[in-house]
Specification:
single chain; 296 residues; alpha+beta; Nucleotidyltransferase, domain 5; two-stranded antiparallel ribbon; 7 helices; 22% strand
């Protein structure tokens, strides 16, 4: 047993840390983006449907105990756009729960998926989502002048005819969900039913996959644990830890329900693999050492 307070010296010939490539990887995979992995991707993932949600946490102290003029204390929400088929976190906005944050989330999701119209979009009944979806996916139409007397018609926004968006409403009694109902906001009930029939994971309108991921993230990031002393004390650190937890999950966290059988053996997959962004499970050291692109 070593004497108390004693520590061995550095080994002979030690000159500092040396970067070591992850074992078993001879070169960067051809199927992996060559210039970005975390905050932006050079090609869109194979996302066909999305679930939006917001997850509550707080920094310093809860909102009711904060100075209203202090923007860096109080409730802090993770606004998340999740691909339920690949379990991929496509977009994340961390901040106060506001309409601006919701617009930023939907706008970023639209950009990261190449502007494609999703098969189906779902969320809770937060009222900012319809306007955010309309702003991101809609097209402004300016009616032509008729030459007749009177005030000209105002410009209006039209949505793609195949866009479908539905919400989930939960009725609670004594803190427990006793009833779940859904409402189609954009599109028709028939279009939503057809979209769900094509889905790999859903048969009804739901937000269960993004809500399940909320629990996973609370388990991975102790700052989000409820009724604990590990909450964040600094706003910037909280945002950084949140981004680290979410996007390392995409590349480094094999999800059991995504595994597939190959030649009689189970092959584990991460959300990034399921979405076509890479072809192997990334060790955390590789993900941290890989260069990222900072967009202005």
């Amino acid at each position: 047993m070593w004497p108390r307070g004693w520590a061995p010296g550095r080994p002979p010939g030690w000159s500092g840390s040396t970067r070591i490539r992850s074992p078993g990887i001879s070169d960067w995979p051809a199927a992996t983006p060559s210039n970005s992995t975390r905050n932006s991707w050079p090609f869109p993932p194979t996302t066909a449907e999305v679930q939006f949600d917001e997850k509550w946490a707080f920094v310093g102290r809860k909102e009711k105990n904060c100075d209203p003029d202090d923007p860096h204390r109080g409730d802090c929400w993770d606004h998340v756009a999740l691909d339920p088929e690949a379990r991929l976190v496509v977009s994340l906005v961390v901040g106060k729960r506001t309409a601006d944050a919701t617009h930023a989330l939907v706008r970023d999701f639209h950009r990261r998926t190449g502007g494609r119209v999703m098969r189906v979009m779902t969320s809770d009944e937060y009222p900012a989502y319809p306007d955010a979806i309309r702003a991101a996916y809609g097209t402004t139409v300016t009616p032509p002048r008729t030459g007749r007397p009177g005030r000209p018609r105002k410009p209006y926004t039209t949505l793609p005819p195949d866009l479908t968006y539905a919400t989930v409403h939960k009725t609670r009694e004594d803190g427990r969900v006793v009833d779940v109902s859904t409402r189609v906001v954009f599109g028709t009930a028939v279009a939503v039913a057809l979209a769900l029939a094509l889905s790999v994971v859903s048969r009804v309108v739901n937000t269960c996959f993004v809500e399940r991921h909320n629990g996973t993230d609370r388990n991975r990031c102790s700052r989000k644990v409820r009724k604990g002393y590990t909450f964040s004390k600094d706003w910037g650190t909280h945002r950084a830890a949140t981004a680290f937890s979410y996007f390392s999950y995409n590349f480094c966290w094999p999800v059991r329900t995504l595994r597939e059988k190959v030649d009689g053996r189970w092959r584990t997959r991460t959300p990034a693999m399921a979405a076509g962004l890479t072809n192997h499970v990334w060790p955390l050291s590789e993900w941290l050492a890989y260069p990222a692109v900072q967009r202005k």
